[in-house]
Amino acid sequence: MSFISESQLSNYRTRTMTFSRDNFVNLNESYSRDKTKPMVFLSHKHDELVILHDVIAFLKNEGVDIYVDWMDEEMPAYTNAETAVKLKNRIKVSNKFILIATQNAINSKWCNWELGLGDAAKYKEHIALFPVNRTYQSFSGAEYLKIYPYIDYENGNGVYLNGSYIPKGYYVKTPLDNGNLNLVPLKDWLRR
């Protein structure tokens, strides 16, 4: 699995403003949201705000609505069993589940729990990892992540099995049983 660097993501930061509750969709008010836009449940480590804002800017640029739990006014002020019940529901009703896969998120009990819920509700067509790495770590000890589709950038130098070049852009890469990858342009995957 390759990683998207923080510097790649930071390119999107300058294109957007600071995020507030107005930039996110409350899934309980889904009747009022633009249903032509896919809804993405974004799982993340709460103390990685710069990365979170960069990923949100990146995904907003792709034309999706974002759900972030701590921007949901209906979430309890302190984490408890009600939080877990509400998160389960939010994951079910969203169209896609994306985990911002940083080392800290992989080590987080909550992120792993959400990934398990996303797996049960969205596997394999509607779940993806967004691997972000600061120091090109290998995520040793989290080899289970290799079964999940992931978002990656192709620079135009890669080739398909038929020898044709893969166009430059972001893709969701799904590992296949034969060891190959199925590539779907990110914009297409988000709208499936």
Describe, in plain words, how this protein is organized in 3D.
The protein has 192 residues and is an alpha/beta fold. 31% of the residues lie in helices and 21% in strands. It contains six helices and eight strands; from the N terminus they run E-H-E-H-E-H-E-H-H-E-E-E-E-H. The chain has a five-stranded parallel β-sheet with strand order 1-5-4-2-3, with helices on both faces. Strands 6-7-8 form a three-stranded antiparallel β-sheet. Strand 7 and strand 8 form a beta hairpin. The two termini are 23 Å apart.
Q: What strand order characterises the main sheet?
A: 1-5-4-2-3
Mean pLDDT: 86
* Helix content range: 25-40%
* Helix-strand makeup class: alpha/beta
List the helices and strands in order: EHEHEHEHHEEEEH
The count of β-strands is 8
The largest pleated sheet is described as: 5 strands, parallel
Q: Regions with pLDDT < 50 over 5+ consecutive residues? A: 26-31
Radius of gyration: 16 Å
Distance between the termini: 23 Å
Q: Give the count of helical stretches.
A: 6
Shape, please? globular
Percent range for β-strand residues: 15-25%
What's the quick description here?
The chain is α/β, with parallel strands linked by helices. It is built from 6 helices and 8 strands; from the N terminus they run βαβαβαβααββββα. The protein is globular.
Attribute tags:
192 residues, alpha/beta, five-stranded parallel β-sheet, three-stranded antiparallel β-sheet, 31% helix
